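User: I'm new to structure prediction. If I give you an amino acid sequence, what do you actually give back? Let's try with this one:
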Amino acid sequence: MLLIYQYTSDAMFKILSDREVLIIGLGGRSSTYKLRGLASITWLSIDGKKTVPEIINTVAERGRVAVQHWPQLKKDVESLLIELCEKGALVVINS
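Assistant: Good question. You get back a string of structure tokens that encode the predicted 3D arrangement of the chain. For your 95 residues, that looks like this:
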């Protein structure tokens, strides 16, 4: 089964003073995280429809990642998605 991620209502992405930030915990105590480079592209690639491999391909294309770096990119994106789930910014929905 391929995983699909979507945002939770507790997460918000904003651009503040040339910084891209993710705010988690809108309903109560919140935490703010800076997203840079490929992490920002990953967040913006999540649409509730794309599977993880599709997200990775989107990040690779938009980030202009060389093919030889795709194995590391795959690990990094998968780790980020898991971390964002653990922090409450994303949920997994089945495909």
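You can read the tokens as a compact description of the fold. Here is one thing that stands out. Residues 3-90 form a domain with the Arc Repressor Mutant, subunit A fold (CATH 1.10.10).
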